[in-house]
Sequence to fold (130 residues):
Amino acid sequence: MLGVRIFRWRRRGDGGLVRVCADGDLADGEIRRLREPPAVLCRAGGRLYALGLRCSHAGALLSKGTIVEDCLECPLHGGRFALDGGSVRSGPASHGVPAYDVVVREGLVYVSRRPRRRGRATRRPWGARR
Fold:
């Protein structure tokens, strides 16, 4: 069983980014819990992703989940969230988890303090009026 390490965070004065670790610290397929922002950082296919810490269905810690294909799978009920945006791919969850921007600069990994804003829907639901 792998232990969950919580990284210490350091503030950086450029646009709300938080330095979380060195780029080489995270192996492919590994998931790590972050303190600030409350999120998980994972590497899949050579890319880094940061998603919300808890499952939107039952509140399980996603840091104990697994990476399956291009999704983060919840350890409790098996719900899957897309790594690239946090949307629900399958499972009992009805809405996605927040996704954070990840930046690598000079060998260090930074995560935005606030989640990305989700895009507006381009179509109205059936029966909606203008």
